[in-house]
Amino acid sequence: MKLDGFGIFVKDMATMVRFYRDVLGFGIKEDENTSNVYLEKDGTLFFMILLCNK
């Protein structure tokens, strides 16, 4: 069984992008300044969605 992708909700997109890119080695698929960011590593797609506090 192979995991094709997964996603999480985040409160601080810039911090999370830096962690997944710089520490875990994910490649960025989209601009990190948006509310949705795609990252990829070893064929697995990772999706982060900015959680808005109201």
TrEMBL record:
Taxonomic lineage from the root: Bacteria, Bacillati, Bacillota, Clostridia, Eubacteriales
SUPFAM superfamilies per record: Glyoxalase/Bleomycin resistance protein/Dihydroxybiphenyl dioxygenase (SSF54593)
Listed Gene3D superfamilies: 2,3-Dihydroxybiphenyl 1,2-Dioxygenase, domain 1
GO molecular-function terms, A-Z: dioxygenase activity
Presence of the UniProt keyword Oxidoreductase in the record: yes
Descriptive protein name: Glyoxalase/bleomycin resistance protein/dioxygenase
VOC domain residues: 2-54
Top-rank taxon, per record: Bacteria
InterPro entries from the UniProt entry: Glyas_Bleomycin-R_OHBP_Dase, Glyas_Fos-R_dOase_dom, VOC_core
Native organism: Clostridium pasteurianum DSM 525 = ATCC 6013
Keyword tags: Dioxygenase, Oxidoreductase
